[in-house]
Structure formats: structure tokens, C-alpha cells
Amino acid sequence: MYDQIREDTLYTMLYAVVTVMAIMASCYLLFRRANAIAPEITSPVRLRRWVAAFFASIVLNHAWYMPIFFLNSRDDVMMIDLIGGLLDCMTLIPLAIIVLLAMLQDRRRPLWPVAAMMAPVVLGGVFNVATRSYALQPIVYVYALLMCMGLIIYMVRASKQYGRWLRDNYADLEHKEVWQSFVVLAIILLVFVFYAFVSEGPAYQYAMQVILIVFICYLLWRVETLSDLSISQQPFTAEEETTTIENMEDNGLAQTTSDIISTLLQQHCIDTHLYLQHDLNLSQLAKAIGTNRTYLTNHFTHQGISYNIYINNLRINHFINLYREAVAAQQSVTAQQLALNSGFRSYITFSRAFKQRMGQSVTSWMRESAQ
Q1: What's the mean per-residue pLDDT of the chain?
Q2: Any idea where the domains of the chain sit in the sequence?
Q3: Residue 251 pLDDT more than 50?
Q4: 251: which DSSP letter?
Q5: How confident is the model at residue 237 (pLDDT cuts 50, 70, 90)?
Q6: Confidence band (pLDDT; 50, 70, 90) for 236?
Q7: Does the structure show a pLDDT above 90 at 279?
Q8: Which superfamily, per CATH, for 238-370?
Q9: Cα dist from 365 to 82, 317, 322, 335, 337, whole Å
């Protein structure tokens, strides 16, 4: 396999391009704090460091395999290939999995399962190096395929859980959702596995380099456009969180906690138009009305809605009022402008929420309302 690419100038250039891209991307993420792709977004520092480590492992991978371009001894090439595969199992693959986990910011997941998952692959690689053979390679490939399938299943479940957490805590989901990333990365991973199983020629080597280029570009974009959600999760003291609720209950008001929260939401969120604030999250709203996140979450759960739906409904009502006022005043307005004036950062998000709430598209509703 390596004999066919050793004299391939185009492949050598592609190999060098990938190495340089990985070096530059790793240094960029480690030493530059501000985003070049999306300057208005503060990305997670933890994710930036893990992705930088992943890019550095790509550099290590390419540096290790580079002597193959100059060696003619099959035994030497085999040893470099075997040890390189072992290094990949100890660095490149685990770091790729950790990067996927780091994208989920609902909680910090333990990393020891990654080590446990990779242990059989590493042991198989150690055996191959010790015996100077590919004896366990088929078994390692089968295990790796099963591991990839299990990882994809876990990521699907975890991303759904993460999506629910987002809807329960954030009004604006732009630059926070990650399920698209898992879809793209899962496709890339499956393509890589497919080539690893069915091909051993130059096409496999080219495919690996192209996949790495896609990985580098996509992960760099993903890191730059993903908001750091830890910034908005400031803890409150118990006194700050429950003061208003306790005062109202101590005053002997004949109201349930849910009724009290409804009153507080009306006074401090609806009447003040607080819901128009961009990136208003559950914690900020809870502090504004004088309660805590648990009370507020339970209130929305009792109502059968999420926090995201609650805020979006208020914004849609605001949009409807603005539109009707504009029509009554015979003013020319666009749905995009009214959506922005109603607290939505994205018209796509608005149109999706509007259709979910009203059962029809914005344009259809506006057409009917104008009649």
C-alpha cells in the first residue's frame, strides 16, 4: 500500500497540507482567545483546548508516519505502521471522542469510559507491535466498528438529552445546538470506517487525508460558533433565589406556588417586556422574578411547556400585536423586521416557532390577517 504512494507527489503535497493545517489550527485555538470566524461569540475554553489537543494528535500522527516516504525496508515500514496505529488508538481516536463529549455543555461527563472503551483496541495494538504482525487486526477492526456504532447510539441519546436541557434553560438556541455536528461527524466517521474495511490502496490514503481536512475545517468552525454556556450559569444564593416566593407565602396569600410564579412572571417578565431581551436564560428570569430555577422549571413543567416555548410564545404574541398595529396604521413592514423587534435573533427560528404555535406559516397567517 505504501509503495504505491511513496512516489506520488500529489499525495505528498496533500499530506503536508494536512500537517500544516493541523499545526496552525492547534496553535490558533491555544493562543488566540477571540474568535475570528464569529467575533460576537465566546466559545467554550474547555472545548477549544480539547480540539487543539486533537489537532496536535493529527500532527503527531503525520510526523510519525513521515519516514515511510523514505524507507524501503518492509520490516521498518511495518513497525512504523504498527506503532503508528497504536499511537492513533492512544491519542487521535480518544481525543476525537472527548471532543464530541465536550460539545455537550449540560454537564461535564466523566472521561474514564473513553479509556475503558479504547483499552481493548490499545491492547490489540500492543500485541501486534510485540509480535510484529497484523494477527489481531481483523478482530480490532470488528471491535472498532462495534464501538463506533455504540458511540453513535450514545451520541444520539445524549444530544436529545442536551436539546431538552437547552429548551428548558434558554430562550435563544442559536449557536447552542450541536446535533447537526454529530450528524456530520457521524457521516465522516462511517465513511472512514467504510474505507478502512474495503480498501487498502492509494484511494484509502487519499480518503483519510480528505477526511482529516474536513475534520479540521468543520471542528474549527464548530468551536468558533458554539457559545460558552457556562458564562450564563451563575449560581445564586438560597436567599436570593427564594426571597419573593417566601415573602408572598409568609404574607398569607391564598395562592399556590405556581399561581405566585404566574403573578411574578406577569409583573416582571410580561409587563416589563423582559422576554424581548436576547439570550435571556432560565437563571436570569428566575432571579428577575425573585425565585429559583427549580420552582420556575417545575412551574413550566406543570404547564406542560418548556422555558423556550414560554418565551417564544410571548415573543410571537408581541409580533402579532406589532403587525396588527402596523396594519391599522397602514405602515409597510416586513416579517423579518418585526421578528427582530419581537426578540428573535434569527428569522428561521422565528418562522419555525410561529408555525409550531399557530399551525401555519408566517406568510400564510399575514395573508389571511390582511383580508
Answers
A1: 85
A2: 2-232, 238-370
A3: no
A4: T
A5: very low
A6: very low
A7: no
A8: Homeodomain-like (1.10.10.60)
A9: 64, 13, 14, 11, 16
* C-beta separation of 64 from 83 below 8 A: yes
Q: Find out if CATH 1.20.1070 is the number for domain 2-232.
A: yes
Angle between helical axes of 307-328 and 362-370 (0-180°, round to 10): 30
**Other Cβ atoms within 10 Å of 246 Cβ, number:** 13
**Which cell numbers hold the place of 205?**
490514503
CA 67 from centre of chain: 37
250 has pLDDT over 70? no
Cα(270)–Cα(314) distance, integer angstroms: 8
Q: Residue 293 has what pLDDT?
A: 87
What's the chain's length in residues? 371
Report which listed range, 15-19, 182-186, 227-231, 234-238, is most confident: 15-19
Q: Do domains 2-232 and 238-370 have the same CATH topology?
A: no
* SS3 letters across 106-162: CCCCCCHHHHHHHHHHHHHHHHHHHHCCCCCHHHHHHHHHHHHHHHHHHHHHHHHHH
Closest C-alpha among 190, 195, 177 to residue 1: 195
How big, in percent rounded to 5, are the helix, strand and coil portions of the chain? 75, 0, 25
